[in-house]
Amino acid sequence: MAFGSFDEGGSGQPMAEINTTPLVDVMLVLLVIFIITAPLFHQAVPIDLPQVSATKLDEKPEVIQLAIDVDGNIFWNGEAIHRDALAGRFADVSVRQPELHLRADRKVAYENVADVMAAAQRANIVKIAFLTQPNP
After folding, report:
1. Which residues contact 61 (CB under 8 A, 6 or more apart)?
2. Quick one: which of 62, 80, 85, 90 is 20 to 30 A from 115 by CA?
3. pLDDT for the residue 136
């Protein structure tokens, strides 16, 4: 019994070809359906918007580089400051909504880092980033 052949005198081998005509027919029908329905996907309401000219604001936020060394000393943008002056400095710059980039030595007590973060929070500085070194 041979597949794909009705003649009795055939070689007895199955037919190894795939009839692609029905596949092409289905693909053409799907293409036509897509071409007809594609314009219907655009459901925007036509609105006449006012024309204005404005300049783009390229203001970069102020960044405060705050570092805490292994001894607990605090450095504000590279300048050593006392812990008591930190709250005053945060209060002075909080109006400008700066970003605080905090770098702490690996061996600094967590209490020192939490103290600096609490002072920043009291001054309404909400953008705080922790800077680290990537693994070698």
Report:
1. 97, 98, 99, 127
2. 62
3. 77
Half-sphere exposure of 22 (CA within 13 A, CB side): 2
d(CA 16, CA 20): 13
| 42-51 pLDDT tens trace | 766 777 777 8
Return the domain boundaries, the chain: 63-130
> What is the C-alpha radius of gyration for the chain, rounded to an integer number of angstroms?
36
User: Could you tell me which CATH number the domain at 63-130 has?
Assistant: 3.30.420.270
Q: Evaluate if pTM is beyond 0.85.
A: no
pLDDT in tens, 22-70: 899 999 999 999 898 887 777 667 777 778 887 777 778 889 999 999 9
Query: Would you tell me the crossing angle of helices 83-93 and 110-122 to the nearest 10 degrees?
Result: 30
The residues near 122 (Cβ < 8 Å, ≥ 6 apart) are 87, 90
DSSP string, 37-97: HGGGG--PPP--PPP---PPP-PPPPEEEEEE-TT--EEETTEEE-HHHHHHHHHHHGGG-
